[in-house]
Design a protein that fits this description.
Number of domains: 2
Helix content: 10-25%
Order of helices and strands: EEEEEHEEEEEEHEHEHEEEHEHEHEH
Strand order of the largest sheet: 7-8-9-10-11-18-19
Number of helices: 8
Structural class: alpha/beta
Oligomer: single chain
Strand content: 15-25%
CATH topology of the largest domain: Metallo-beta-lactamase, Chain A
CATH superfamily of the largest domain: Ribonuclease Z/Hydroxyacylglutathione hydrolase-like
CATH class of the largest domain: Alpha Beta
Shape: globular
Length: 348
């Protein structure tokens, strides 16, 4: 049985399956791409052929445009198997955002799972993560330090609603990433009983419309630009991080600045962003979830694609699992390190 290092390689264009001659989440335009999810650092434009879940393809078309999301698009249902030059390929849900998937590859009895980004907490807007047994598990490590242990998202939503009740004349402005985090927050608010309109920055509207077209109900959503100042007293507004500094925010009523991100576990990140109400809501696995997931896969070897690979590799080594840092090029918005900037805060 060949070791995965002999047939799955890191190249300047990304992770390349040599016998199948395709890339997983390539960093530049290629002939054949398999895409784990529609965030910009994983789903880039210009590929000739793209294979992904139907939801990811729809979100790519909405984000990139019909002509840039891949000339040929092949949707694949979770669990459905295709064979490319002898390589068996199938997808398993990753639980990150709508349509997100792990890419499972098997060649000559050797199996690798490329997880992309994933989370283990329940999310009403996407299918939950499903572990797949493998010889090598390729994982992220965005929150690969023991300090990162995410609270229940319902607790953070309860904190937001308690603040709204405490300050009924103020607008609560919640910073969040446009794809995935925004829709999850809306769904969690609805489940918590908030049925009033949720106001959105215009850049968040397109992804919400696509989610609803794909069968995810989000309730009464309205653009902030259509609101009078009085309507925003006591309201919840979702916007990209940093939007409070934009001119449109002048219509808000003494806003409480909040940010929904796993990085809000670290207080100096919140202070540096001027965040009054940090909400620890992440679309990535935390430290315990990373380790538990790796154990579930049964993989004796783990490739760590980004984040704090050193800490995770050390923890794995103590359990007899080989951890290997798998550095790749072309990082962009949606990925995160230990010291995130605005784009990383938004996505995590």
């Amino acid at each position: 049985m060949p070791h995965p290092e002999t047939w799955l390689r890191v190249t300047p264009a990304g992770l390349w399956c040599e016998p199948g001659d395709f890339f997983v989440d390539p960093t530049r335009a290629v002939a054949r791409a398999v895409i784990t999810h529609a965030h910009a650092d994983h789903a880039r434009p210009g590929h000739e052929a793209v294979l992904a879940t139907a939801e990811t393809l729809a979100l790519m078309r909405a984000r990139l445009g019909e002509g840039r999301a891949g000339r040929r698009q092949q949707p694949l249902r979770p669990g459905e198997v295709v064979v490319q030059n002898g390589v068996r390929l199938w997808l398993r849900p990753a639980g990150h955002v709508l349509g997100s998937a792990q890419v499972c590859l098997e060649w000559r009895g050797s199996r690798v799972v490329v997880s992309g980004d994933y989370k283990r907490a329940p999310d009403p807007t996407c299918a939950p993560f499903e572990a797949e047994r493998c010889d090598v598990f390729v994982t992220e490590a965005t929150f690969g330090l023991p300090v990162f242990r995410h609270p229940e998202p319902e607790r953070e939503i309860a904190r937001l609603l308690a603040s709204v009740a405490l300050f009924p004349e103020r607008t609560h402005l919640v910073g969040c990433y446009a794809l995935g985090k925004c829709q999850r927050l809306i769904a969690l608010l609805r489940r918590a009983g908030w049925q009033a309109p949720i106001w959105l920055h215009e850049t968040l509207l397109a992804a919400c419309r696509t989610y609803e077209a794909l069968g995810v109900p989000l309730g009464d959503l309205r653009p902030v630009t259509a609101a009078r100042r009085a309507a925003l007293r006591g309201a919840i507004v979702l916007a990209p991080p940093g939007a409070a500094a934009e001119r449109w925010a002048e219509r808000l009523s003494d806003p409480v600045i909040a940010l929904a991100s796993g990085w809000m576990r670290v207080r100096h990140h919140a202070r540096a962003r001027g965040v009054e109400l940090p909400l620890v809501v992440s679309d990535h696995a935390d430290w315990d979830e990373l380790n538990a997931t790796i154990d579930e896969t049964g993989a004796p070897e783990v490739w760590i694609m980004h984040g704090r690979d050193d800490a995770l590799a050390h923890a794995l080594g103590r359990r007899g699992i080989r951890g290997r840092a798998l550095h790749r090029v072309g990082r962009g918005a949606g990925e995160a390190d230990a010291a995130p900037g605005p784009a990383e805060d938004a996505a995590a």
